[in-house]
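It is worth pausing here to work through a concrete case rather than discussing structure prediction in the abstract. The textbook approach is simple: state the sequence, then state the predicted structure, then interpret. We follow exactly that order.
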Amino acid sequence: MKLTIIGGGNMAKAIIKALLESQAISAEEITVSDVNPENLKMLQNSLSVNTVSSNRAAICSADIVILAIKPQNLDELSKDLSRRFKPGQLIISILAGTPLARLITKLQHNEIIRAMPNTPAQIGMGMTIWTASEQVSAKQQRDAQTILSSMGSALCVSDEGYIDKATAISGSGPAYFFLFMEYMVDSAIKLGFDIETARKLVLQTAKGSITYAVSSSQNLSELRRQVTSPGGTTAEAIAYFESNDIKQIINGAIMAAYRKATEMGRH
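Step two, the predicted structure:
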């Protein structure tokens, strides 16, 4: 399987590292194209992949082409590659807010998968949700699942509408957790801890809580109740959260992210 990645940024690096570590593909079978020669040099030196500056040359013999560029660069890319893809070549797009219909129209190719990974993919702990156009074969879908699951978990959905919904949950989700942890660190510092100790307290608590939740068969509300003794410190904190309608704040934020994702898709 020959793989080309257009765009040599952080996500491209994450995909390559995940594929190599899982032994799903060898470095010799991977080609990266990017307008930035420094990105290409870094990838070639650190991961031993093939690099080229020409997108047309990069896709020439590829079985699968991953688009790892910014959404706003699609118009420019399509001027270069529209009608250049051959039947049988699979395109996997990780462009946020860019629906299949737009990709098909811009690239004049209909064997396309739209995927939404998230940043923990960079350490093999990502969550990717993806969907395929009708023309994508069963074998191509299996190949896509292999590539995307090398970065963590990958879930295929038949309804493209779930991609925008997942963007608001798993795509943007890491930032929500980072924000909550950031504020917890700030609170720990206000209580008198130095920043290193505050950071360790928060990050290890988060790591342990997530690992515990993943390994447990109990639902999240039950796990929360196990920590929340009546009349205790946790109960006091939870009561404060609820008195300030934290549930509505979280739901409102996720709905705002979803609306933005659908808006991006329309434009």
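Step three, interpretation. Residues 186 and 238 are 18 Å apart (CA to CA). The two ends are 34 Å apart (CA to CA).
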